[in-house]
Amino acid sequence: MATGRTHRPATRSRGIPEATVARLPLYLRALTALSERSVPTVSSEELAAAAGVNSAKLRKDFSYLGSYGTRGVGYDVEYLVYQISRELGLTQDWPVVIVGIGNLGAALANYGGFASRGFRVAALIDADPGMAGKPVAGIPVQHTDELEKIIQDDGVSIGVIATPAGAAQQVCDRLVAAGVTSILNFAPTVLNVPEGVDVRKVDLSIELQILAFHEQRKAGEEAAADPGVAPPAVARKQHSTDQGPDGDVPAVMPA
Amino acid sequence: MATGRTHRPATRSRGIPEATVARLPLYLRALTALSERSVPTVSSEELAAAAGVNSAKLRKDFSYLGSYGTRGVGYDVEYLVYQISRELGLTQDWPVVIVGIGNLGAALANYGGFASRGFRVAALIDADPGMAGKPVAGIPVQHTDELEKIIQDDGVSIGVIATPAGAAQQVCDRLVAAGVTSILNFAPTVLNVPEGVDVRKVDLSIELQILAFHEQRKAGEEAAADPGVAPPAVARKQHSTDQGPDGDVPAVMPA
DNA sequence: ACTTGTGAATTAATTCACAGCT
DNA sequence: AGCTGTGAATTAATTCACAAGT
C-alpha cells in the first residue's frame, strides 16, 4: 500500500495509519491540558513527553495530518487542538447510547470526560424493567424495548455495550439493525458484526492476563541471570510506557 | 532482534511477540468455552473463528509456544488450555489491589471473571475515610493509609488504578514504591513509572475518539463516490473485527 | 541556533503458500 | 485427505538522521 498508492491531491494523502489514529486522542489530551494553562506553543519534544511517546513518532504522526508546525519554534497549541479535533471528528456532536446499566454502565454514564469531548449520552438502556425511569447520572434509564426507537430518533451511530457477556451479541445485533455502525464493547465476548461496522473492545481480564505474562517473565529473570555474553542495557524490552502493538483491551462486566 | 538472536535451546526461543501475547487471552477464552462444552479437539480454522482472528495468524502465534497440535487433526483443547495458561502465568495466583472504589472500582471488584482466572482481589482501597470498612463485593474497603502494608503483607505485584485522574500518579508512585511492578490504569492520565514497571491503560475516552474518527470517515465516503478507477473489493479497510495495531484503550473514571 | 518534516533504514506484524506429518 | 507448522513475502509501524525552513 505504501508503494502503489493511487496518485492523490498531494496536499493530503488520505489514509492515516491506524497506529497514528490511536495516538491522536493522547496528543489531544496533552494539548488540552496545555491550552488550559494558556501555554501558547509547544515543541515536539515537550508534547511527546507529556503524551508519553517519543518525539520522532509524534512528528511522523503529525506529518500525516499536514504541516501544522513552525520550524525553529514548535506547534501552536490552540491551532493543533483544533486540527486534531477536526481530524478525529470531534467538532461535531456524537450521540451515544449505553446499554446495560449495572455498576459499569453507571460508571460510564457518570464519566465526566464524556461530554467534554464531542460525545453526548443520548440514552441509558437496560433490560431490567425495574430500572426503567430510575435516573442514573441525571438521565432516566429506558427499557430495551425502546432501543430501536431511540437510535432512530436521535440518529445514534455509536453504541456502548456494558451488559453481561451472554446478552452482548444479541444487543449488538439490535444496535446494528437499528443503524449503529460503531460499537464499544465492554463485555468479554467476541462480537460478530457485518462489514462496515467497527467494534472496539475493552477487556479487563485480557489486560490483567497480559500483565501477568510480563510479571511472570520478570520473576523468572531474577533467577536466570544468564551467564553468557549478557547484553547489558538495551536487551530488555522497553517496559513501562508504551502499550506495545495490538490494540486489545479488557472487558469489564458487572456480576 | 529476529536476525541476531543469540543461539538458544532450539526447542523454545524466548521472546514471544507482543502482538501474540495480547491474543493469547483471547484464544484461552475461546478454548475455555470449548472445554466447558467438552469439545475434545479443535482445528486452527474453528478456533480462529471463535476468537475472531484468521487461522494463519493463530497458527503462527501458537508456533511461538511450541508444537502443540497434531497435523491432520487439530489441537487438543484441554492440553492447549493448560499450555496457554502456563505461558501466561495463570497457573499461579496473582493477588491484585484495586485503588479507588467509585462506580468503576466497584464494577471491577464485582467482575466475576476476576477470580475465575488466576487473579484474586487482595484488597480494595479508597482515600475516603467514610468508605473504610464498608463491604464492596463482599470485601471491606480499606483506607489508603494501609496501602503499603497490604502490598507487602500479601505480596501484591499487580495494582489497578480506578481513581480520578488527579490522584492517579500519586497512587501509582506509592504502589511502585511499595513493590508493585504491573499497573492497570483506568484513569485518563499518562503515568510515569521507573524502568521495569509495566503499565497498561484502559481509556474510554480514547476508544470513543477512535470510533468517532472512523465514523466520520464513513459519513464522508457516502458523498465521495470516487468516479475514478474505483478499486472495488479489497480497497476498503478491513473494518469490523480486529482492533488494528497499537494497544490503546480508554480510561474510565467515576465523576 | 533551533525545530520541524520526511525520505531511508530498521524492526515488527501479518499473510501467503506449501512442505511435512498424521 | 487433511491440517499443522513455518520459511518467505508482504505490509505496517517505528526509528534514524538530516535537509529545509524560520
Largest two-chain interface = A-B, 90 and 91 residues
- Apparent shape of chain A: globular
- Under CATH, the homologous superfamily of the domain at 94-201 in chain A reads NAD(P)-binding Rossmann-like Domain
Order of helical and strand elements of chain A: HEHHEEHEHHEEEHEHEEH
Please, what is the average pLDDT of chain A? 85
Cα distance spanning the termini of chain A:
45 Å
Sheet with most strands: strand arrangement of chain A: 6-7-5-4-8-9-10
Helix content of chain A: 40-55%
Biggest sheet record of chain A: 7 strands, mixed
Instruction: Kindly provide the name of the CATH class of the domain at 94-201 in chain A.
Output: Alpha Beta
Molecular structure report:
- Two copies of one chain form a homodimer.
- The first copy, chain A, has 255 residues and is an alpha/beta fold.
- Among the domains of chain A are: 69 residues, Winged helix-like DNA-binding domain superfamily/Winged helix DNA-binding domain (Arc Repressor Mutant, subunit A); 108 residues, Rossmann fold, CATH 3.40.50.
- The first copy, chain A, is 41% helix and 16% strand.
- Chain A is built from nine helices and ten strands.
- In chain A, the strands form two sheets. Chain A has a seven-stranded mixed β-sheet with strand order 6-7-5-4-8-9-10. In chain A, strands 1-3-2 form a three-stranded antiparallel β-sheet.
- In chain A, strand 6 and strand 7 form a beta hairpin.
- The radius of gyration of chain A is 22 Å and the shape is globular.
- The first copy, chain A, starts with 17 loop residues before the first helix and ends in a 31-residue tail after the last helix.
- The N terminus and C terminus of chain A are likely disordered.
- At the A-B interface, helix 1, helix 5, strand 9, strand 10 and helix 9 of A face helix 1, helix 5, strand 9, strand 10 and helix 9 of B.
- The structure holds a DNA duplex (22 and 22 nucleotides).
